From TrEMBL:
One annotated Gene Ontology cellular component of this protein: membrane
InterPro entries named among the record's database cross-references: Acyl_transf_3_dom, Acyltransferase_3
Name of this protein: Acyltransferase
GO MF terms, alphabetically ordered: acyltransferase activity, transferring groups other than amino-acyl groups
Organism listed in the record: Pseudomonas arsenicoxydans
Length: 405
């Protein structure tokens, strides 16, 4: 059965890696970008991102295959394919928890919260806004440009999508399925970002008991507000703790030394294999503990016998946000909309696998383009905005000092 055969995933991954390798050779701008970025301090995590984002694509591909044949949207029956989605998301949350908590531990009260806020804004939205526009245009195109909602309600839908919620647009049923509903994870990321300074006051800066109490109340209020429409699930948020734990783990030289050994690499791969084959859901205690063990070893610099190190894998990591955000729409167009136009039956196994192969390659090409021409310029624009804000702040401070004299 296609939905349980792991060789399908292996073939898709190989196509993606080969496509990335060919792009590195054919497009000098990509090669220069990797050379300029150099070896990251957490190069193993950079490589891991590429596997995770593409894993979510494979997960949704199998869900699409099941939907085409049964008309039911459901988790794959295979633990492996189910975990390629949920497990990958859990590890993404761990990466977020690790990188930002580790930065807090390193910088302490010197942490630049303005830079943090600007960088997150210009990291999430430059690609998300064009995708959102594509969704709205697609909906109206599908409905022959007919407005079925009052203007005020449509405005509410736009605002909801701007905050990463996914209400149906203009009465188009299950609008979020156009992009495989991937934006649900961004709500959790945003909650983590907003709660981070409050959590820092409680656990790192260690303010007065009044400050701690107010911060805890603030975290709870954010939990309610961010999850206003769809409650944030505590067991999903728990996966961030795996990354936070890793930030403390790498501060123990003995643990880091062990984590970089061959034995640790074997332990990490074994833990991941058990988590991805013995469990159908990722956000439960046992699979989360197994994935946390895997992650702390990777965060310590273990490249898992070289599989996280190749340039092609590093490039997949660079474009992972594009891959994650865009894959649902690519799947919808190529697997659900295109076949009827070409008089193909996507329910046929050979046809579906051919389309999946095309999607695997095309997704990497599209993601590479959107990274180079949307994401990277967005990141650079954020740096310029931050520089301007700092200059304005410096000028205001200077003016205040003159007035005080």
């Amino acid at each position: 059965m296609t939905e349980t055969n792991p060789l399908i995933a292996l073939a898709a991954y190989l196509l993606a890696i080969v496509t990335a390798a060919l792009l590195l050779r054919a497009v000098p701008k990509i090669a220069r970008h990797l050379e300029h970025s150099g070896e990251s301090r957490y190069a193993s995590i950079d490589g891991l991102r590429g596997y995770l984002a593409f894993g979510v694509f494979v997960h949704h591909s199998i869900i699409t295959w099941i939907f085409l044949r049964t008309g039911v949207i459901d988790f794959p029956p295979s633990n492996f394919y189910a975990q390629l989605g949920q497990g990958s998301v859990a590890l993404f949350f761990m990466i977020t928890g690790f990188l930002f908590w580790n930065r807090l531990l390193t910088q302490g009260r010197q942490h630049d919260w303005l830079a943090f806020a600007v960088s997150r804004l210009f990291r999430l939205y430059p690609l998300y806004l064009p995708l959102m526009l594509i969704v709205f245009v697609t909906v109206f195109y599908q409905q022959n440009w007919e407005l079925k909602e009052p203007g005020i309600r449509l405005l509410g839908q736009i605002l909801a999508w701007l905050t990463f919620d996914r209400p149906d647009v203009n009465q188009y049923h299950q609008t979020g399925m156009l992009i495989s509903n991937v934006t649900w994870t961004l709500g959790y990321e945003v909650f983590f970002y907003l709660a981070l300074p409050l959590a820092a006051m409680v656990f790192i800066y260690r303010g007065t008991w009044v400050q701690v109490a107010l911060c805890l109340i603030g975290i709870y209020a954010l939990y309610q507000v961010v999850g206003w429409e769809h409650s944030l699930k505590k067991h999903f948020l728990a996966s961030f703790l795996g990354g936070i734990g890793a930030a403390y783990w790498i501060r123990r030289p003995q643990l880091v030394a062990w984590s970089q050994t061959r034995m640790a690499g074997i332990v990490a791969l074994l833990a991941l294999a058990i988590a991805f084959t013995a469990f159908n859901r990722a956000f439960n205690l046992r699979p989360l503990l197994l994935m946390s063990l895997f992650f702390v070893i990777v965060a310590s610099g273990n490249n898992l016998f070289g599989i996280l190190k190749p340039r092609s894998i590093r490039w997949l990591g660079e474009i992972s946000y594009s891959t994650y955000l865009l894959h649902g729409f690519v799947l919808w167009v190529l697997v659900q909309r295109l076949p009827p136009m070409l008089e193909l039956d996507a329910r046929d196994t050979s046809t579906f696998l051919t389309l999946l192969a095309v999607c695997s390659c095309l997704l990497i090409v599209i993601s590479s383009l959107t990274f180079l021409y949307i994401e990277q310029p967005g990141i650079n624009a954020g740096k310029k905005v931050l520089q301007r804000l700092r200059q304005d702040r410096k000028a205001d401070k200077g003016l205040a000092e003159k007035i005080a004299r």
